[in-house]
Specification:
The complex is a heterodimer of chains A (286) and B (137). Chain A is α/β, with parallel strands linked by helices and 286 residues long. Chain A contains eleven helices and ten strands. The longest helix of chain A is centred in the middle third of the chain and has 16 residues. The chains are: A alpha/beta (286), B mainly alpha (137).
Chain lengths: 286, 137
């Protein structure tokens, strides 16, 4: 039986990828960011997932405005890093798991989540930067990754409640999968940031910290936050945080916060990272 | 705060909604074409000629030719698409953001290093007007 062993929330700021790719991790500006992810790298090495379901958004890269699916799922054997205007990131091709991905797509659709199926998609910084933060610069990523892409670019994005429910459906699908797999769900994006208009640079530390607290203590309450509140309180692009609620929905009610990191700034953005484990599993293993 | 419920009330913010998506369609699709190296080269060699291939409004065309990032957003550009043009012109997200606020690169970076722009006073146009009204009495 497959099981979800951890949920991780992680920003996907493109400039972090650029800093890593250009060897700037020890620069004064960046060193605290990379230091902050050291513990998460240790934890993920201990957790050793067999598979990652990564919730991310495409930034006008693979999807154009021609079609804007709200939820989509990658079933390909591999996903190449995209050229976002400055050349593709020098990172390994992301390997998928078509068997599991198709199983997941079927399960979600039959459980009332009408996923768009992606046979061919190039992945941008939204997907690859969190992998870099978790695994550094390996020759190959250590496990297959199933991309689940969420529209948070064209308003409205799906609501937090809908995202959380998708997480629940992912959890059910994983638990019913016959093979033994240790699955990590990675929710990416955020935290507060606004990168367009005169209000660029907005950061709301206290809102972000409360969001991190409530991922453990009050996830249901988080699902009630209206989209306009994300935009107003955390910046227009802070709305990406609804994707963390998919990750949270995939975990048990009762979770333990294994680690948290918060830092301002990375370029225009507040960087957040959290590692949550199911308390039921923590008890079994310790 | 509850009375400021609609996103159009948020200052300095141009949410990429149905109106922007329709208005900015070709502008964004032009930006997206710059994901190809060959197109970037052609654009940089003669931007005005390249733009002829896209049915942009005059205002959109001028915004692109002037590299006026805020104007592009106001004309329906979405930042993730516009960033392809930014990257083509050698600008990072941070530099584009600074330009949109009218701050210098250095001052914008300083603001970010000291914790970013506060949400206080930046939540609502109505709230800003009310506060300005009180201030003048």
């Amino acid at each position: 039986m497959a099981q979800i062993v951890a949920g991780i929330g992680c920003s996907h700021v493109p400039a972090i990828g650029v800093a890593l790719d250009l060897g700037k991790t020890q620069d004064e500006y960046w060193k605290d960011v990379f230091k902050g992810f050291e513990r998460t790298k240790e934890l993920i090495a201990e957790i050793k997932p067999d598979l990652i379901i990564e919730i991310y958004n495409d930034h006008g890269t693979a999807f154009s405005l021609k079609s804007i699916p709200t939820f989509s799922l990658g079933v390909a054997a591999e996903f190449k890093p995209a050229d976002e205007g400055w050349g593709p990131r020098p990172v390994p091709v992301v390997k998928g798991d078509p068997d599991f991905a198709w199983y997941l797509a079927e399960s979600l659709i039959l459980n009332e989540f009408d996923m768009t199926i992606m046979n061919e998609i190039e992945v941008d910084h939204g997907l690859t930067v969190p992998l870099s933060l978790l695994f550094g610069q390996p020759k190959e990523w250590p496990c297959p990754v199933i991309p689940i892409c969420v529209n948070v670019v064209t308003y409205p994005s799906p609501t937090g409640k809908r995202c959380f429910a998708l997480g629940r459906a992912i959890r059910k699908a994983v638990q019913e999968y016959k093979k033994d797999l240790r699955v990590v769900v990675l929710g990416t994006g955020g935290m507060s940031h606004q990168i367009h208009g005169e209000r660029c640079g907005l950061i709301n530390r206290s809102w972000d910290e409360s969001f991190l607290d409530r991922l453990s203590s009050d996830p249901q309450g988080l699902t009630e936050i209206p989209l306009v509140e994300y935009v107003r309180e955390t910046g227009a692009e802070g709305i990406e945080m609804v994707m963390w609620l998919i990750m949270r929905g995939a975990l048990d009610e009762d979770v333990e916060e294994a680690y948290r990191f918060y830092h301002v700034p990375a370029s225009n953005t507040a960087v957040g990272n959290i590692v949550l484990t199911n308390r039921s599993q923590t008890k079994v293993t310790t | 705060m509850k009375k400021y419920e609609h996103y159009t009330d948020i200052p300095g913010t141009y949410l990429f909604d149905k109106n922007a998506c329709a208005r900015g369609y070709h502008l964004n699709m032009f930006c997206m074409s710059l994901m190809k190296e060959e197109n970037r080269r052609r654009f940089l060699a003669n931007d005005a000629a390249y733009l002829e291939e896209y049915p942009l409004t005059d205002s959109q065309r001028h915004a692109v030719l002037d590299r006026n990032w805020l104007r592009m957003i106001q004309e329906g550009g979405n930042i993730y698409y516009v960033s392809k043009l930014g990257a083509t012109c050698g600008l990072s997200f941070e530099e584009m953001a600074a330009a949109m606020t009218g701050m210098t690169k250095e001052n914008y970076r300083k603001m970010m290093l000291s914790g970013g722009r506060s949400v206080e006073g930046n939540r609502s146009k109505i709230e800003q007007l009310e506060l300005a009204g009180k201030g003048s009495h």
